[in-house]
From TrEMBL:
Positions of the Integrase catalytic domain: 33-91
UniProt xrefs under InterPro entries: Integrase_cat-core, RNaseH-like_sf
GO BP term (any one): DNA integration
Region feature Disordered, mapped onto this chain: 85-112
Name assigned to this protein: Integrase catalytic domain-containing protein
Domain of life (superkingdom): Bacteria
Length: 112
């Protein structure tokens, strides 16, 4: 499994490259210590990402296919998905409710 591929700046998003390798059949069976799959939380998130995005849309033909699809999935995951632990509302709505409860707006011109 390749940890990082170079580009014009010598850097690439490791997670995207790991998933691209997996999606195109170039990934090794196991990672090495210190790579992105070393963290159990990250491994769980990558599994969800593969199940919800990568597997259903195979075959992927390259990074040009994976990058925009990943950006769309991340936007959906962070802003639109309904989360049962938050009352089946999207994360941004939950954050707005939380902020409103914990940081109420003061009434302009009112006495405190």
């Amino acid at each position: 499994m390749r940890a990082v591929r170079g580009n014009s700046t010598g850097r690439r998003n490791t997670l995207i490259m790991e998933v691209l390798d997996w999606a195109t059949g170039e990934a090794d069976a196991a990672g090495t210590v210190g790579d992105v799959l070393d963290s159990a939380l990250m491994e769980s998130q990558i599994g969800l990402y593969k199940t919800e995005l990568i597997k259903p849309r195979k075959p992927w033909h390259g990074l040009a296919d994976v990058e925009p699809a990943t950006a769309e999935w991340v936007d959906w995951f962070n802003n639109q998905r309904l989360h049962s632990a938050m009352g089946d509302i999207p994360p941004h709505e939950h954050e707005s409710h939380h902020h409103a409860q914990h940081h109420p707006q003061s009434v302009a011109g009112g006495d405190a």
